[in-house]
Amino acid sequence: MDLALKEETNDLDISGGDLYIVENNDAVAQHVKQRVKTFLAEWFLDEQRGYPYFDLVFQKNPDFVAIDATMKQYILDSPGVVELVAFELTLDSPNRILSLSFQARSLDGIIEFSDTIGVI
Question: Does the model's pTM come out above 0.85?
């Protein structure tokens, strides 16, 4: 169970002046999305949280095999995720953009994610 976030902005969903709760598969999906889109040390209250995008991805001559393996494990380590069903990762190194798409199974169903992560 978690507070609901708006899909487009990741801000708290306070539509109509009320806070909303997400539960079960929706809560797992929201948490996985937050994890995948958080850079290591981005959150000042816990600098150990996040994926090491600057260390692994957004550097000169990145090791795609290492990125692939660590991202899969990072998703699998998310609370509520049981297995990866599908996974696709592409890297546009010159433009520093990672495209990630996956389906993961949680205890309550399938989670789908598809987005780009980049540094502008």
Answer: yes
